[in-house]
Design brief:
heterodimer, A: mainly alpha, 66% helix, 0% strand, elongated, B: mainly alpha, 5 helices, 69% helix, disordered N terminus
Chain lengths: 59, 199
Protein backbone atom coordinates (compact mmCIF):
# COMPACT_ATOMS: atom_id res chain seq x y z
CA UNK A 1 0.00 0.00 0.00
CA UNK A 2 2.86 2.33 0.86
CA UNK A 3 4.44 1.59 -2.53
CA UNK A 4 1.17 2.29 -4.31
CA UNK A 5 0.79 5.65 -2.64
CA UNK A 6 4.28 6.89 -3.38
CA UNK A 7 3.25 8.61 -6.58
CA UNK A 8 0.09 10.16 -5.13
CA UNK A 9 2.02 11.49 -2.14
CA UNK A 10 4.86 12.83 -4.30
CA UNK A 11 7.20 10.92 -2.03
CA UNK A 12 9.47 9.46 -4.69
CA UNK A 13 12.60 11.11 -6.05
CA UNK A 14 11.29 11.10 -9.62
CA UNK A 15 7.72 12.31 -8.98
CA UNK A 16 8.73 15.73 -10.23
CA UNK A 17 10.49 14.42 -13.33
CA UNK A 18 9.36 16.34 -16.41
CA UNK A 19 9.01 13.27 -18.61
CA UNK A 20 8.88 9.49 -18.68
CA UNK A 21 12.34 9.21 -20.27
CA UNK A 22 13.90 11.35 -17.56
CA UNK A 23 12.11 9.32 -14.90
CA UNK A 24 13.32 6.06 -16.43
CA UNK A 25 16.86 7.45 -16.65
CA UNK A 26 16.78 8.44 -12.99
CA UNK A 27 15.53 5.04 -11.84
CA UNK A 28 17.92 3.07 -14.06
CA UNK A 29 20.93 5.16 -13.00
CA UNK A 30 19.99 4.75 -9.33
CA UNK A 31 19.95 0.98 -9.87
CA UNK A 32 23.24 1.13 -11.78
CA UNK A 33 25.04 3.15 -9.09
CA UNK A 34 23.66 0.85 -6.38
CA UNK A 35 24.62 -2.39 -8.09
CA UNK A 36 27.96 -1.32 -9.61
CA UNK A 37 30.00 -1.42 -6.36
CA UNK A 38 28.37 -4.68 -5.31
CA UNK A 39 29.11 -6.25 -8.68
CA UNK A 40 32.73 -5.07 -8.65
CA UNK A 41 33.43 -6.19 -5.09
CA UNK A 42 31.61 -9.48 -5.70
CA UNK A 43 33.57 -10.06 -8.90
CA UNK A 44 36.92 -9.37 -7.25
CA UNK A 45 36.00 -11.54 -4.24
CA UNK A 46 35.02 -14.40 -6.54
CA UNK A 47 38.24 -14.00 -8.54
CA UNK A 48 40.33 -14.04 -5.34
CA UNK A 49 38.43 -17.13 -4.15
CA UNK A 50 39.01 -18.89 -7.46
CA UNK A 51 42.71 -17.95 -7.44
CA UNK A 52 43.10 -19.08 -3.83
CA UNK A 53 41.39 -22.42 -4.35
CA UNK A 54 43.23 -23.16 -7.60
CA UNK A 55 46.63 -22.27 -6.11
CA UNK A 56 45.73 -24.30 -3.01
CA UNK A 57 44.99 -27.29 -5.20
CA UNK A 58 48.37 -27.02 -6.87
CA UNK A 59 50.24 -27.26 -3.55
CA UNK B 1 54.39 -13.34 20.99
CA UNK B 2 55.61 -16.35 19.12
CA UNK B 3 55.03 -15.22 15.58
CA UNK B 4 56.02 -12.04 13.81
CA UNK B 5 54.62 -10.93 10.47
CA UNK B 6 56.69 -8.74 8.23
CA UNK B 7 55.60 -6.38 5.48
CA UNK B 8 56.97 -8.53 2.66
CA UNK B 9 54.39 -11.25 3.28
CA UNK B 10 56.64 -13.63 5.19
CA UNK B 11 56.32 -14.68 8.78
CA UNK B 12 58.60 -16.43 11.16
CA UNK B 13 57.55 -18.98 13.72
CA UNK B 14 59.54 -18.86 16.99
CA UNK B 15 63.30 -18.36 16.68
CA UNK B 16 64.96 -21.49 15.46
CA UNK B 17 61.86 -22.99 13.94
CA UNK B 18 61.54 -23.47 10.19
CA UNK B 19 60.97 -20.37 8.16
CA UNK B 20 58.04 -20.46 5.75
CA UNK B 21 57.22 -17.97 3.05
CA UNK B 22 53.59 -16.97 2.54
CA UNK B 23 52.76 -15.94 -0.97
CA UNK B 24 49.80 -13.56 -1.28
CA UNK B 25 46.89 -14.81 -3.39
CA UNK B 26 46.78 -11.47 -5.18
CA UNK B 27 50.03 -9.49 -5.52
CA UNK B 28 50.00 -6.24 -3.57
CA UNK B 29 50.47 -4.13 -6.71
CA UNK B 30 47.47 -5.76 -8.38
CA UNK B 31 45.28 -5.39 -5.30
CA UNK B 32 46.18 -1.70 -4.97
CA UNK B 33 45.35 -1.20 -8.64
CA UNK B 34 41.98 -2.91 -8.16
CA UNK B 35 41.14 -0.60 -5.24
CA UNK B 36 42.08 2.39 -7.37
CA UNK B 37 39.98 1.08 -10.27
CA UNK B 38 37.03 0.69 -7.91
CA UNK B 39 37.13 4.40 -7.06
CA UNK B 40 37.52 5.28 -10.72
CA UNK B 41 34.61 3.08 -11.67
CA UNK B 42 32.33 4.90 -9.24
CA UNK B 43 33.62 8.25 -10.50
CA UNK B 44 32.77 7.39 -14.10
CA UNK B 45 29.49 5.85 -12.92
CA UNK B 46 28.56 9.25 -11.48
CA UNK B 47 29.45 11.03 -14.72
CA UNK B 48 27.48 8.59 -16.86
CA UNK B 49 24.54 8.83 -14.47
CA UNK B 50 24.47 12.63 -14.62
CA UNK B 51 24.74 12.53 -18.41
CA UNK B 52 21.96 9.96 -18.79
CA UNK B 53 19.54 11.85 -16.55
CA UNK B 54 20.25 15.17 -18.29
CA UNK B 55 19.85 13.48 -21.65
CA UNK B 56 16.43 12.22 -20.55
CA UNK B 57 15.26 15.83 -20.22
CA UNK B 58 15.47 16.27 -23.99
CA UNK B 59 13.18 14.62 -26.54
CA UNK B 60 16.20 14.10 -28.82
CA UNK B 61 19.95 14.02 -28.26
CA UNK B 62 22.08 15.89 -29.21
CA UNK B 63 19.67 18.80 -28.69
CA UNK B 64 18.57 20.65 -31.84
CA UNK B 65 21.20 23.01 -33.24
CA UNK B 66 24.09 21.10 -31.71
CA UNK B 67 26.78 19.49 -33.89
CA UNK B 68 26.69 15.71 -34.34
CA UNK B 69 29.55 13.68 -32.96
CA UNK B 70 31.77 11.67 -35.37
CA UNK B 71 30.29 8.24 -34.65
CA UNK B 72 32.01 6.26 -37.43
CA UNK B 73 35.50 7.67 -36.91
CA UNK B 74 35.25 7.09 -33.17
CA UNK B 75 34.01 3.53 -33.77
CA UNK B 76 37.25 2.89 -35.67
CA UNK B 77 39.20 4.54 -32.88
CA UNK B 78 37.40 2.28 -30.39
CA UNK B 79 38.52 -0.76 -32.37
CA UNK B 80 42.11 0.53 -32.24
CA UNK B 81 41.93 0.83 -28.46
CA UNK B 82 40.43 -2.66 -28.10
CA UNK B 83 43.24 -4.00 -30.32
CA UNK B 84 45.77 -2.50 -27.90
CA UNK B 85 44.14 -4.50 -25.06
CA UNK B 86 44.37 -7.65 -27.19
CA UNK B 87 48.10 -6.99 -27.59
CA UNK B 88 48.39 -6.59 -23.83
CA UNK B 89 46.72 -9.98 -23.38
CA UNK B 90 49.28 -11.44 -25.79
CA UNK B 91 52.07 -9.73 -23.84
CA UNK B 92 50.73 -11.15 -20.58
CA UNK B 93 50.62 -14.67 -21.96
CA UNK B 94 54.26 -14.67 -23.01
CA UNK B 95 56.04 -17.00 -20.65
CA UNK B 96 59.23 -14.97 -20.52
CA UNK B 97 58.89 -11.25 -19.80
CA UNK B 98 61.49 -10.53 -22.48
CA UNK B 99 59.16 -11.87 -25.15
CA UNK B 100 56.48 -9.36 -24.15
CA UNK B 101 58.44 -6.42 -25.54
CA UNK B 102 56.95 -6.40 -29.07
CA UNK B 103 53.25 -6.70 -28.09
CA UNK B 104 53.77 -4.17 -25.28
CA UNK B 105 55.27 -1.70 -27.74
CA UNK B 106 52.37 -2.35 -30.13
CA UNK B 107 49.81 -1.70 -27.39
CA UNK B 108 51.61 1.51 -26.50
CA UNK B 109 51.57 2.75 -30.10
CA UNK B 110 47.87 1.92 -30.56
CA UNK B 111 47.06 3.75 -27.33
CA UNK B 112 49.00 6.77 -28.54
CA UNK B 113 47.10 6.64 -31.83
CA UNK B 114 43.80 6.64 -29.91
CA UNK B 115 44.72 9.77 -27.99
CA UNK B 116 46.03 11.53 -31.09
CA UNK B 117 42.85 10.70 -33.03
CA UNK B 118 40.73 12.02 -30.18
CA UNK B 119 42.75 15.24 -30.15
CA UNK B 120 42.10 15.58 -33.88
CA UNK B 121 38.39 14.93 -33.26
CA UNK B 122 38.29 17.61 -30.57
CA UNK B 123 39.80 20.17 -32.93
CA UNK B 124 37.01 19.38 -35.39
CA UNK B 125 34.29 19.66 -32.75
CA UNK B 126 35.67 22.96 -31.46
CA UNK B 127 35.69 24.37 -34.99
CA UNK B 128 32.00 23.43 -35.28
CA UNK B 129 31.24 25.48 -32.17
CA UNK B 130 30.97 22.68 -29.60
CA UNK B 131 32.76 23.93 -26.49
CA UNK B 132 32.68 23.14 -22.80
CA UNK B 133 30.32 26.08 -22.19
CA UNK B 134 28.26 26.01 -25.40
CA UNK B 135 25.63 23.56 -24.08
CA UNK B 136 25.00 20.58 -21.83
CA UNK B 137 25.93 18.42 -24.80
CA UNK B 138 29.36 20.04 -25.10
CA UNK B 139 29.93 20.10 -21.35
CA UNK B 140 29.25 16.39 -20.92
CA UNK B 141 31.14 15.47 -24.08
CA UNK B 142 34.35 17.21 -23.07
CA UNK B 143 34.05 16.24 -19.41
CA UNK B 144 33.47 12.52 -19.92
CA UNK B 145 35.63 11.99 -23.00
CA UNK B 146 38.34 14.31 -21.64
CA UNK B 147 38.46 12.53 -18.29
CA UNK B 148 38.82 9.21 -20.06
CA UNK B 149 41.55 10.67 -22.28
CA UNK B 150 43.46 11.70 -19.14
CA UNK B 151 43.22 8.09 -17.97
CA UNK B 152 44.48 6.83 -21.32
CA UNK B 153 47.43 9.22 -21.01
CA UNK B 154 48.10 7.91 -17.50
CA UNK B 155 47.86 4.36 -18.84
CA UNK B 156 50.31 5.24 -21.60
CA UNK B 157 52.72 6.59 -19.00
CA UNK B 158 52.41 3.27 -17.16
CA UNK B 159 53.07 1.33 -20.37
CA UNK B 160 56.14 3.46 -21.12
CA UNK B 161 57.41 2.81 -17.60
CA UNK B 162 56.74 -0.92 -17.94
CA UNK B 163 58.62 -1.03 -21.23
CA UNK B 164 61.55 0.89 -19.80
CA UNK B 165 61.76 -1.56 -16.90
CA UNK B 166 61.41 -4.47 -19.29
CA UNK B 167 64.33 -3.22 -21.34
CA UNK B 168 66.36 -2.60 -18.19
CA UNK B 169 65.49 -6.07 -16.90
CA UNK B 170 63.96 -4.77 -13.68
CA UNK B 171 60.28 -5.47 -14.47
CA UNK B 172 58.59 -7.78 -11.99
CA UNK B 173 55.76 -10.12 -12.92
CA UNK B 174 53.37 -8.54 -10.40
CA UNK B 175 54.22 -5.01 -11.56
CA UNK B 176 53.54 -6.03 -15.14
CA UNK B 177 50.24 -7.61 -14.09
CA UNK B 178 49.16 -4.44 -12.25
CA UNK B 179 49.95 -2.30 -15.30
CA UNK B 180 47.99 -4.65 -17.52
CA UNK B 181 44.98 -4.56 -15.19
CA UNK B 182 44.91 -0.76 -15.33
CA UNK B 183 45.15 -0.76 -19.12
CA UNK B 184 42.32 -3.32 -19.36
CA UNK B 185 40.18 -1.03 -17.22
CA UNK B 186 40.89 2.00 -19.41
CA UNK B 187 40.08 0.01 -22.55
CA UNK B 188 37.00 -1.76 -21.15
CA UNK B 189 35.55 1.54 -19.97
CA UNK B 190 35.72 3.23 -23.36
CA UNK B 191 33.05 1.21 -25.27
CA UNK B 192 30.59 1.97 -22.45
CA UNK B 193 31.37 5.69 -22.66
CA UNK B 194 31.17 5.54 -26.46
CA UNK B 195 27.74 3.94 -26.24
CA UNK B 196 26.44 6.49 -23.73
CA UNK B 197 28.03 9.66 -25.17
CA UNK B 198 28.15 9.07 -28.92
CA UNK B 199 25.18 6.79 -29.70
Amino acid sequence: MALALVGAAWACPVCGAPGASNEAAYVSMTAMLSLLPLAFIGGVAYWVYRTATSSGGER
Amino acid sequence: MSTADSFDGTFQVTPGARRRERKPVVPNEVFATLVFIFTELMFFGGLVSAHTITRGLWPMWPPPGQPRLPIEATAFNTAVLVASAVLMVVAGRREALGQARAPLTGAMLLGAFFVAAQGYEWVGMLSQGLTLTSSNHGAFFYLIVGTHAVHVLAGLAVLIMLRARLVAGTLTSSGFQAGRVFWYFVVALWPVLYWRVYL
